[in-house]
Design goal:
There is one protein chain. The chain has 15 helices and no strands. It is an all-alpha fold. The protein is globular. The two termini are 23 Å apart. 44% of the residues are buried.
Length: 306
Amino acid sequence: MQKKKALFLIFLTAIISGISIFINKYSVSKIEPYTFTFLKNLLVTIFLISIILLSKEYKALSKLNRKQWLCLLIIGLIGGSIPFLLFFKGLSIASAASSGFIHKTLFIFASLFALLLLKEKLSTKILFPTILLLIGNYLILRINNFSFGKGELLILIATVLWAIENVFSKYTLKKISGNIVAFGRMFFGSIFILIFLLFNQQLHLLNQLTKNDFIWIILSSILLLLFVITYYNGLKFVKVSVATSILLLGSPITTFLSYLFSDYQITLSEIIGSLFIISGLILTIKVIELSEMKVKSSPPHIHNEL
């Protein structure tokens, strides 16, 4: 039952992600991206502190040892700050389609790191659903000419760091709640981005924000808050490979919202791509379920070998 609830939370995260990407397209076009990211992280940190205090999780927070605080700091560094800075810099150089496709390979890197570091079992049957997911995203993102330059390299590094962060967060979640891990990511991420803004003398850009900008920032912050709460509480009970695969559902959701609320015209390739992604996700979950049923039904000595 707990795992079903966790899967529901991850699917909810994917929906939130799809909506967030749609909203952030407009936000980033109006606001300097580093400033935008810093303020979003800061607001979400404040929201999370309030939630932790209201839910009385502050007792657990106060009992964290030095090693656990260090884990949260690392999550903030490799998940909540450096990759965001690299991603936005890369996005300003590379094409949006190439950047989007590279970022969507997150589930591959995350699955590999989870296999190596967490010993998460990966069935060879997962290969076909993985191919479907990649083809689906390739079709949705309308990649005509894929190139790999400095911008794409920065996007790739950011993606790899996020994959490592997913695995490290999964490890940290063994003894810490999802809300506290989310808090660590956003709190320490905000501090590192603030240091970056101070070092690059960009903090003065905060004074240039308008009331309209703050509306976009607050809206994006609420979506980010919902994202981290649902994702980290779900990741606690779901494999990294499964969780990151489900997040790919965000792509067709963003495309659908673009069609509904703008002059955007959905192409046949995007419809086919969405079907590929949905099929890939269904097959991925089925493969995971079958492999887990096989482990549960195996004799004790075989179970230990697995």
